[in-house]
Specification:
Elements: H1 11-24, E1 27-34, E2 38-48, E3 53-58, H2 62-69, E4 72-76, E5 83-94, H3 100-110, E6 121-134, E7 144-147, E8 150-151
Antiparallel strand pairs: 1-2, 1-4, 2-3, 3-6, 4-5, 5-6, 6-7, 7-8
């Protein structure tokens, strides 16, 4: 990883950059675990409502099964040169019970409404409790920009 000449961002800048990415990016890596079956990681589309990440996946998926057994999850945006990791607890909403504003935002962003599908889908909501963001070694110190659900910037 190239770190020469990299300028270390302040917490407020990291928070601003992270919020911008959460509002514009499409994909997030979702890491879950099941007490008997172990870890599972999958990329999913997501939308950000300003407070929570909303994803959608098949009702019988490994992700949904794991979250129902162990709601603690970790999410990661896909750029390894501009790391953003979120931790929180996931909550499942069957497609017929999801809050309308969350489902509509997801539909607008992706042009796809899982509620209209024949198969059952589950919306997964994660309110971050911890967020870490860094670009290379110079930003490792101070990488926690949210702790206990409160932004530090």
């Amino acid at each position: 990883m190239e770190t020469t000449g990299m300028v270390r961002r302040r917490a407020a800048e990291r928070m601003r950059d992270t919020l911008e990415r959460l509002g514009t990016e499409r994909d997030v890596w979702v890491s879950t675990a099941h007490p008997e079956h172990g870890p599972h990681q999958v990329p999913l589309w997501f939308s950000w409502d300003g407070r929570a990440v909303w994803m959608c996946t098949g009702a019988t998926s490994v992700t949904v099964r794991n979250v129902r057994e162990e709601p603690r999850v970790r999410l990661a945006l896909p750029d390894t040169s501009d790391v953003v990791l979120l931790q929180g607890e996931a909550q499942c909403f069957p497609d017929r019970e999801v809050p309308a504003d969350a489902a509509e935002a997801f539909t607008v962003k992706f042009g796809w409404d899982p509620r209209a599908e024949e198969d059952a889908y589950v919306y997964v909501r994660v309110v971050p409790r911890t967020v870490r963001a860094w670009r290379g070694v110079p930003e490792l110190r101070g990488r926690v920009i949210m702790r206990d659900g409160k932004w530090l910037g």
